[in-house]
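Q: I'm writing up a methods section and want to include an example of the input and output format. Could you take the sequence below and give the corresponding predicted structure tokens, formatted cleanly so I can copy it straight into the document?
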Amino acid sequence: MTSAGIIANPASGRDIRRLVSGASVFDNAEKGNMVYRLMVGLGAAGVERVVMMPGASGISESLRRNLLGNSSRGKDAQALPELEVLKMRLRHDPRDTAEATEEMCERDVSVLIVLGGDGTNRIVAGHCGEVPLCPLSTGTNNAFPEMREATVAGIASGLVATGRVKGALRREKLLRVAVNGDQEDLALVDVATSTDAFVGARALWRPSEVSEVFVTRASPESTGFSAVAGLIEPVPPEAPYGLHLRLVAPGEAKITIPAPLAPGLVVPVGVAEVRRLEPEEEVELAPFSGCVALDGERELEVSERDRVTVRLDPDGPFTIDVGKAMREAARWGLMNGGIPGKEDEG
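A: Here is the clean output for your methods example:
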């Protein structure tokens, strides 16, 4: 039985940046609607079972309404996969995402679809092994997940899960952070140093607190500290390298960038140095007291006595290229009875 896992984080899109910037709240009812649309797409592609993390805070109710509405349509109802909700005690913190990811992988799901922001996907990436991800944006700063219609993302994920599309996966890069050589964590997009003494509300948005930034990708179209790098030297996800930036006060900077650090928040960021970070290159940070932020959130508290290193790992998780999967489906007639697209006729 071909199965797909769905992780919908009820806390994504609700952090402190709603108070300090113009970020909007991503409604949990809409996440439930997205899960339903994913199931429609997965079913159309031949997936037989969906395994889902329990959907707290309105997600379950929204999904249930959609499922009841579909079943009431009789012969016009959508053909949906069997739904299995994991039996697990929710703690309403990142441990839920980690536990659900591990449980789904043990149940041999073929793909994992993640509804969340950079932080949610970071947790999933640390526990998913070789199971490919389809990251859909429902967070705040979303440099890693994409804004996609869930129905189409479900079809693309289903085509990969059933093995009908083979060439739509991309191996992502990671930044691995080690403290004193043993405590290790990871980031999918960026690592930044913060002089804040405590993790606190986690979200990072004040450039005056940041002196070093490492990125795996850099798009001028994104928000967050990776956007600073993207406005200087764009780095596509498929590039084999990353970037290392050293930040200073705008008055002391070689380059000053008006950067969108969060939705509705553009501030000047001073950049003293930008250089490429090569695969497997390890950089030791200058001693500092504060926090290391991973994908925009303060996670690790360190002191000047700690030795902190950052390494670019080219062997991160696989992700599904939704556009490529759908183009392959059109090319080979996978969704229309095997009639090839025009480029293959003749």
